[in-house]
Amino acid sequence: DDIPELPVERSLFDKLKARIQLAKQIDTAQHRVKKEKHERKWMREAADAMEVELDSDFIDSESEAPSKRQKKASNTKAAALKAQLTELLAQPLIALGVSTKYITSGSR
Fold first, then answer.
1. How many other C-beta atoms can be found within 10 angstroms of the C-beta atom of residue 22?
2. pTM here?
3. Most CB within 10 Å of its CB: which of 4, 52, 57, 94?
4. Of 77, 67, 64, which Cα lies nearest the Cα of 30?
5. 99 assigned to some structural domain
């Protein structure tokens, strides 16, 4: 009933870590934007459904929402991060000591 241990190639950790960090940064940036949009939309819809006027603080904060320039900058940053991640993912992960010159040289 013991689960067999899988061999772990520790030399790949740094490469994997860089890829995971980029993916987290992309996810965090996208989540922040989506969450803010969702919360504002929900508040407006709830106020409309209850036929209640929104608080002036909410309306003021909406006008202070990120400008088009800031949104464009964050979208550009996210696109750059995605390009970096795509580039990293295109590179094969090869463990130290493994040669890719020969088909049969995959194992140590």
1. 19
2. 0.64
3. 94
4. 77
5. no
Q: Which two tokens stand for residue 14?
A: 């740094």
For residue 101, being part of any structural domain is answered with: no
Count of domains forming the chain: 1
For residue 80, give its domain range. 10-90
% of the chain with per-residue pLDDT over 90: 25
Block residue for tokens 């106020």: 47
Show Cβ contacts of residue 4 under 8 Å, excluding neighbours closer than 6 positions: none
- 100 within a domain of the structure (yes/no): no
From its phi and psi, is residue 65 left (phi > 0), alpha (psi between -120 and 50) or beta?
beta
**Mean pLDDT along residues 41-60:** 82
Please write down the long-range contacts of 29-36, taking CB distance under 8 Å and 24 or more positions apart.
Answer: 29/74, 29/77, 29/78, 29/81, 30/78, 33/71, 33/74, 36/65
Q: Which residues contact 84 (CB under 8 A, 6 or more apart)?
A: 22
